[in-house]
């Protein structure tokens, strides 16, 4: 039976005949079989191998904004594509790593309003995430020059609203609640409304129009608000300035001692790594002083009175800031005036040429020089941490909100208010 073979096998032996001839020649010995293709097949195999050596991978593009980040992308934030509407900090030209601080404040903002509510907006926009800052608070009676002194510390005249002739004629207070301002040197100034002020009490009565108001209860409420504001400044400030326009006021001393007793305990770390209650540096400032107030006898007497009144107090009244440390006026030194306490005397006006002729005190150097020396001593004062953890400006602001909330809800102030009403 004939069998047709492909054209490749024409003229050649058939595979079966080839196997029989091999068996006759080599016997039963098995030979290796080599399988090969013709030249065209080999070329096609080589081309396919070349194509497989350089594969082309097609990957569908993924949404890089919604997919989770790989560890490499977390370590290299530059690999993340930012949206066009994202916030980009302002940078100095030539230094891309340094971020500029916020613009300097142009005017004070409210921290606590006249309704005694804490304001979260305003000041928070000017705060930084850094721990090198100083908080200075100020309290005193109405018209003693608190706002003027805070403006002098900021080295910006009329920064805080000061008492004008219109305010004096109508017996109105300039500051309500607490105003805050941050200098370019990161000094946070807190200007408080006058304590025990009849003007504040009258404003509070006007807000409660239509309600039955007991005058004795209104006075007690005014005292409670003064105590709460004083306790707040004692808790969140490194330095508290107690401003007076004359030697001694018993109501100021009572407010300080009572607020020290009622304020909520705020723990901080001592040098021995022990948790103790925090108390600020208290500095007594006698503002609007005359030339006779700079005498050695007067300074010695004032220091003796304050030392006796705060002998058992935990408030820091001996921190080195004093008119009698010998650095301001050479005659006012510890040898002549005794151990210095935190007392600074500021003149009412500048020293004029006729002061010596008129028999006025010769040692008073003038208000501008006294303010400069007072600012220098404030900035050189070593400060203690407010809490057991280090606070930045932003965390300090959140801490202030918590402190004010705890003071308003404190049972000590409510109990004191109840006892005062009896």
TrEMBL record:
One of its GO terms (biological process) is nuclear-transcribed mRNA catabolic process, nonsense-mediated decay. The keyword Magnesium does not apply. This is P-loop containing nucleoside triphosphate hydrolase. GO terms for molecular function: hydrolase activity. Belongs to the SMG9 family. It comes from the Eukaryota. Residues 1-20, 42-74 are annotated as: Disordered. InterPro entries: P-loop_NTPase, SMG9. The keyword Hydrolase applies. Coiled coil: none annotated. Keywords: Hydrolase, Nonsense-mediated mRNA decay. Residues 42-52 have a biased composition (Basic and acidic residues).
């Amino acid at each position: 039976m004939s069998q047709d073979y492909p054209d490749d096998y024409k003229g050649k032996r058939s595979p079966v005949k080839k196997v029989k001839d091999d068996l006759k020649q080599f016997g039963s010995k098995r030979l290796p079989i080599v399988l090969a293709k013709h030249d065209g097949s080999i070329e096609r195999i080589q081309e396919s191998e070349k194509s497989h050596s350089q594969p082309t991978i097609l990957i569908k593009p993924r949404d890089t904004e919604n997919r989770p980040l790989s560890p490499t992308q977390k370590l290299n934030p530059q690999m993340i594509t930012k949206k066009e509407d994202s916030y980009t900090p302002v940078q100095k030209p030539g230094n891309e790593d340094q971020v500029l601080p916020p613009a300097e404040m142009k005017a004070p903002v409210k921290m606590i309003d006249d309704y005694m509510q804490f304001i979260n907006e305003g000041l928070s926009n000017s705060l930084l995430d850094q721990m090198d800052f100083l908080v200075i608070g100020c309290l005193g009676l109405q018209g003693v020059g608190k706002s003027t002194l805070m403006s002098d510390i900021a080295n910006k005249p009329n920064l805080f609203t000061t008492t004008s002739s219109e305010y004096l004629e109508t017996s109105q207070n300039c500051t309500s609640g607490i105003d805050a301002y941050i200098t370019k040197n990161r000094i946070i100034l807190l200007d408080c409304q006058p304590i025990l002020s009849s003007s504040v009490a009258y404003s509070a009565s006007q807000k409660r129009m239509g309600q039955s108001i007991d005058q004795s209860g209104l006075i007690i409420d005014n005292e409670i608000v003064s105590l709460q504001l004083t306790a707040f400044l004692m808790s969140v400030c490194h330095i508290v300035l107690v401003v007076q326009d004359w030697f001694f006021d018993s109501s100021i001393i009572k407010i300080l001692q009572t607020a020290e007793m009622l304020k909520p305990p705020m723990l901080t770390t001592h040098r021995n790594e022990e948790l103790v209650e925090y108390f600020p540096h208290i500095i007594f400032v006698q503002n609007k002083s005359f030339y006779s107030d700079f005498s050695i006898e007067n300074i010695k007497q004032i220091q003796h009175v304050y030392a006796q009144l705060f002998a058992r107090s935990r408030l820091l009244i001996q921190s080195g800031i004093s008119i009698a440390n010998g650095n301001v006026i050479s005659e006012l030194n510890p040898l002549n005036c005794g151990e210095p306490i935190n007392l600074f005397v500021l003149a009412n006006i500048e020293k004029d040429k006729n002061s010596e002729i008129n028999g006025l005190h010769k040692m008073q150097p003038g208000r501008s020089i006294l303010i400069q020396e007072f600012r220098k001593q404030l900035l050189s004062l070593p400060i203690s941490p407010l809490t057991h953890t280090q606070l930045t400006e932003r965390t300090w602001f959140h801490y202030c909100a918590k402190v004010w909330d705890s003071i308003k809800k404190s049972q000590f102030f409510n109990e004191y208010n109840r006892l005062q009403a009896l």
